[in-house]
User: What shape does this take?
Amino acid sequence: MLKQEKPDAAWDHLVDAQMEATRAAKAHDCFRHLEHCYHRLEMIEKIVFPPQVFVSGGVIVYKQECSICGEDYGECEHFAGKPYMGEFCYVTVKDVHSDHLSFVENPADKRCRVTSFNTNGGSRNWMTWTIEKDDENI
Assistant: This one.
């Protein structure tokens, strides 16, 4: 993606690779060596990309379900992040209310970040620092 001049997409792919390496290392002892891969990917992040500003949304969750059995999460016997017969368990949020947005240093998901901000004449891309013109300013 970097060769195609798509740094935002490259960032997302890098973060996906980091997350999958972490998940695999947790899934089974035979994949522990992938922790080393995660650390290499983390170094690539620090060398290739500018520092990012991460955000985290605060929400109130009224209902959540287990992805394995569909029951209310917490009432079933499954644990989020653990594999069951080749499928990772995760929590599906069904009823949620947005509460706030915070800036954080260590987000649960590095894809939750500031991608651009408003400036004179348009919006500045955080990765490339280029200004994308607003239609009304053309």
